[in-house]
Design brief:
Length: 108
């Protein structure tokens, strides 16, 4: 059984707090089945947006880069995604070192 989106987001935010990495919900999506985008803001004018992808060959789920570059460009891409998916969650992580923890056990 998969976790609901709101439980996964809560767990992710709690994990980030353990490492004192600021993060907040920019847009709250569907509580049960909403997809999640993670925007990593490195506070230098650039950002990277991650989405979860399903590998059809292996059955694995992993986080992949949706878009990266100037923060304004990343925000535009996220806004476009939200325009056709109202159930989408958007979480913004702010870390100068570029930590997002998505590759850690339990989050991958």
């Amino acid at each position: 059984m998969r976790l609901t989106a709101d439980i996964w987001v809560s767990a992710y935010l709690a994990r980030l707090r353990q490492y004192e990495i600021p993060a907040f919900v920019v847009h709250k999506g569907d509580l049960t089945a909403g997809a999640v985008l993670i925007k990593l803001n490195t506070l230098d004018g650039t950002a990277c947006c991650y989405q979860r992808s399903f590998d059809l060959m292996t059955g694995d789920r992993k986080w992949v880069v949706l878009v990266e570059g100037a923060e304004a460009q990343v925000d535009t891409s996220i806004a476009k995604q939200r325009s056709f998916d109202p159930d989408l969650w958007v979480i913004e992580v702010e870390d100068k070192a570029g930590r997002h923890l998505l590759d850690e056990p339990g989050l991958a």
